[in-house]
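I hope you will forgive my troubling you with a question about protein structure. Here, with my thanks, is the record as I have it:
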Amino acid sequence: MRLITFVPILTCWSFMAWANVEKRIFSAPESVLIPQGQPNLDQLRLDTLTPYNSTLRRQLKAAFPTSTDPEGPATWYLLDSLVDQRRYELRVCWLATQPTDFTINIFELNEVFSNPALISSLALFSEELQALPPFVSNKRQPNTSLLFLKVNAKAAYFTPNTTLMTDVPVVAVDLILDPYILNVLPASLAPIGLHLILIAIVSWPLSKAIYHFLHHTSQTPNHPNSLTSLKEE
């Protein structure tokens, strides 16, 4: 019986151990005027996350830390069409069977273009993308709230397998941009919140009905569970 009692708990823990999540909460900056001439942001060929296209499934390069890349190789993205001053949560989800440390950094445009190290990292990543098939540019408003996202993936395992220690496999990840409702609650948690509110609304009158029923039963004469019958005995 004790083993059966622990089965649901063990099942919950197995799901919890199945995946890892790294997240970053941030507020969108004020909208800026994006130049439409050449060169422009589309030429970087970066994948883009928006509130309307909020999920990307990608395979990221990972590597063991080195003196030049202590956080592992960088992958760059754009966070576009954000709402000024609205809070967002950016999540990176990956399998627990691929031990990896992720570092998430979010930058405004002027931060990147004024920092030589960030410009160099972005340029190197963009060069790798130029050999890919033709890129479909995003339809972007000329005045929009936009940020750069940089994700570093560092291998976090040790194995006697020399192949895995030499060539780190790519890591399958889901990148999720989750807007906050009223800057308080992530939109993805709204169904859970509504479910809890519904349970509270239903349970309050139900608990009162059960209480009154039990109280009435205990006060009924000649009822086997009533206080009166117990006293008479």
About this structure: Strands lie at 19-27, 32-33, 47-49, 55-60, 74-82, 87-95, 100-107, 143-155, 171-181, 185-186.
